[in-house]
From TrEMBL:
PANTHER family: TRYPTOPHAN--TRNA LIGASE, MITOCHONDRIAL (PTHR43766). HAMAP family: Trp_tRNA_synth_B. Its EC number is 6.1.1.2. Its main location: cytoplasm. This is Tryptophan--tRNA ligase. ATP binds at residues 9-11, 18-19, 147-149, 186. L-tryptophan binds at residue 135. It catalyses: tRNA(Trp) + L-tryptophan + ATP = L-tryptophyl-tRNA(Trp) + AMP + diphosphate + H(+). Belongs to the class-I aminoacyl-tRNA synthetase family. It is an enzyme of class 6 (ligase). Coiled coil: none annotated. It comes from Desertihabitans brevis.
Length: 332
């Protein structure tokens, strides 16, 4: 079967609802039809300042959350990026094929570096998408399940694969992003015109899956809507209500149109309660499972090591082909 690969960054104590719906849920679904590889982008996490102990903890938590979401480590190797040295090795080769201008045009880089201030932004932040391209290309992945915010990075990845193949011969599979439109961009609950994000302005706008259920219920119930009273889907004029309808649809399997009919004549408060209930039915057991897995620390570490071994078997082959293709003398 064709391959699928994706990673998340361990840059927070918990994954948020956008990560879960946009990425993790798709990862789980794709396991049935693809050969799947899922990783923790711990090297990427070094692009922002983080306490060493915290990085370790968050990496293990990420693996636990993958499993709690339904990633089956028997079918899908779960690994830490830093455990497979080939990621950094291929990133170097690809960086030598990436134009300075091309890297400068990455909007996430522009946003992130603007946020920390140009003089504080590190070079890792700049080359970040190239490491991401290496993550993907090493596994010859055909599909990459991600949220909308990663689309431009996937474009760069495709471009680098094509450039390499054109210049050195067919080595890489050119990957396609796998972005599901209903969940590709989950919006912030307090600022529904922006995507839910770790760096969002208000902590109340983001549902961290491992937070106390009570806190999350409160966040859903105090989601920003509008001064109107009609429950209708209109992303432009009613972004808050539309985000809630979309979330309820995703969690219940009912279409947005059906929901609009269901809620005819009802108040926004009813909708918020329904969203909170439906979401917590999924989030609460997910959290419980994650906390249980976190108690078996050595098992999580073993899971990552076993995953890395399987990942390396694939990655090493690709890297050897790349080194050959560019003319590096074989070490043995
Ligand atoms: P990261 O860690 O920021 O996010 C993890 C995944 O969650 C998706 N996502 C969202 N989806 C829907 N709505 C949202 N509001 C939302 N916010 C985040 C992201 O698109 C992502 O799929 N660069 C990547 C990590 C990475 C990677 C890779 C991904 C490193 N190497 C190779 C795929 C393949 C990142 O920072 O994701």
């Amino acid at each position: 079967p064709a391959r699928v690969l994706s990673l998340t960054q361990p840059t927070a104590d918990s994954l948020h609802l956008g990560n879960y719906l946009g990425a993790l849920r798709q990862w789980v679904a794709l396991q049935d039809d693809y050969e799947t590889f899922y990783g923790v982008a711990d090297l990427h996490a070094l692009t922002v300042e983080v306490e060493p102990q915290q990085l370790t903890e968050r990496t293990l938590r990420s693996a636990a959350q993958f499993v709690a979401a339904g990633v089956d480590p028997v079918r899908s190797p779960v690994f830490a990026q830093s455990h497979v040295g080939e990621h950094a090795q291929l990133a170097w080769v690809l960086s030598c094929l990436t134009g300075f201008g091309q890297a400068s045009r990455m909007t996430q880089f522009k946003d992130k570096s603007a946020r920390v201030g140009a003089d504080k932004a590190n070079v890792g932040l700049f080359t970040y998408p190239i490491l991401m391209a290496a993550d993907i290309l090493l596994y010859q992945a055909e599909r990459v399940p991600v949220g909308e915010d990663q689309r431009q990075h996937l474009e760069l990845t495709r471009d680098l694969a094509q450039r390499f193949n054109h210049r050195f011969g067919e080595v890489f599979t050119v990957p396609e992003p796998h972005i599901v439109s209903s969940v590709g961009k989950i919006m912030d609950l307090q600022d529904p015109t922006s995507k839910m994000s770790k760096t969002s302005s208000s902590p109340n706008g983001i549902i961290e899956l491992l937070d106390e259920p009570k806190a999350n219920i409160k966040k859903f119930r105090s989601a920003v809507t509008d001064s109107d009273t009609v429950i209708a889907y209109d992303e432009e004029n009613k972004p808050g209500v539309s985000n809630l309808l979309n979330l309820l649809s995703v969690f219940t399997g009912r279409s947005v149109e059906q929901l609009v009919t269901d809620f005819e004549g009802k108040m926004y408060g009813h909708l918020k309660v329904a969203v909170a209930d439906a979401a917590m039915e999924v989030i609460a057991p997910f959290r419980q499972r994650t906390l249980e897995l976190m108690e078996e620390r050595t098992e999580l570490e073993a899971l990552l090591l076993a995953g890395a071994e399987r990942a390396r078997a694939v990655a090493a082959k690709t890297l050897a082909d790349v080194y050959d293709a560019v003319g590096l003398v074989r070490p043995a």
